[in-house]
Write a structure and sequence with these properties.
About 45% of the residues lie in helices and about 15% in strands. It contains 16 helices and eight strands. The protein has an eight-stranded mixed beta sheet with strand order 1-2-4-3-5-6-7-8, with helices on both faces. Helix 4 links the parallel strand 5 and strand 6. Keywords: Hydrolase. GO terms for molecular function: hydrolase activity. It comes from Nocardioides bigeumensis.
């Protein structure tokens, strides 16, 4: 998929997980967002391979990983389940310590991983998000318009699945339009990679279930952690696009300080898709963060 990486397939509880790895040095695990796949890291991987062991993984329901039936959200599409997937991949590769990096949905998995599996986390970075719980507790018109899909994708009775399946390509392209800086345009090749994965059987249903879990069981887990005083203990880099909704609407470091003990900040000149719109600044933010741990 990306030069310099070897392909792997691991199975956890019957779910096939697509992963790639290469390079040598401290291990970095990169987790993608919606509606993408590990291909979103294509601009960062070559530089990271120079002095890191790089691991990519497609979240369950996305990319080339299996999309199990969402009969039980808690055990299939909760961020807790996805974090266990990531831990399984790392264990299968013999990784004992890791720098986590997650964009969008992947960032929410990174947040949960830090809380559930802190023993192997060296550091973590989340790109262009504030915590799920904070988002749902601060809904206003601007959030509802910018993140309308958070509510649409949770609707029951197969409504979003049916509407998206009617024109998958139009839906997917709409997810990128208007959410990237004017200086950047997604390459058609990248859009086709994302479209092929998103169009496969079960993918639309799985990704809707991801969002339904975020609005239900994930919130239950987050509320329980807050009540127990649990926060991210490892150094946490929070990066955001200065042209996007998150950067315009939140004091991103201040929000994350309620959820993590050691927060470092890195604004990036981009909208939502930092690693593709401005890979140079995104990479600089990560490597500077790691150099100062």
């Amino acid at each position: 998929m990306i030069p310099g990486l070897d392909a792997h397939r691991f199975v956890r509880d019957g779910v096939g997980l697509a992963a790639w790895s290469g390079g040598a040095g401290p291990t970095v695990l990169l987790l993608h967002g919606y509606p993408q796949s590990s291909y979103m890291w294509r601009f960062l991987v070559p530089a990271l391979l120079a002095d890191h062991r790089v691991v990519l993984m497609d979240l369950r329901g996305y990319g080339e990983s299996d999309a199990p039936s969402p009969d039980d959200l808690d055990h299939t599409y909760s961020k807790r389940a996805m974090a266990v997937d990531a831990a399984h991949v790392l264990d299968s590769l013999g990784v004992e310590s890791v720098h986590l990096v997650g964009h969008d949905r992947g960032g929410r998995v990174v947040h949960r991983f830090c809380l559930d599996h802190p023993e192997i986390v060296t550091s973590a970075a989340v790109l262009d998000i504030v915590p799920t719980l904070h988002m749902f507790e601060n809904v206003d018109r601007a959030m509802a318009e910018a993140y309308f899909h958070w509510f649409f994708l949770t609707r029951p009775c197969g409504l979003p699945e049916g509407l998206i399946r009617a024109d998958v390509e139009r839906w997917l392209r709409a997810r990128f339009q208007g959410r990237h800086s004017a200086a950047y345009a997604f390459e058609e090749e990248a859009l086709q990679v994302y479209l092929r994965a998103f169009s496969r059987a079960g993918a639309v249903e799985a990704t809707c279930s991801d969002y339904r879990a975020a609005a239900t069981v994930d919130l239950e887990h987050d509320v329980a952690d807050r009540a127990a005083g649990r926060r991210v203990e490892r150094p946490l880099l929070v990066a955001w696009g200065t042209e996007g909704y998150v950067g315009r609407s939140f004091d991103v470091p201040q929000v994350w300080q309620q959820y993590a003990r050691d927060v470092r900040a890195a604004p990036v000149a981009a909208d939502h898709y930092l690693a593709e719109e401005n890979p140079e600044q995104a990479l600089h933010a990560l490597t500077t963060f790691w150099a100062n741990l």
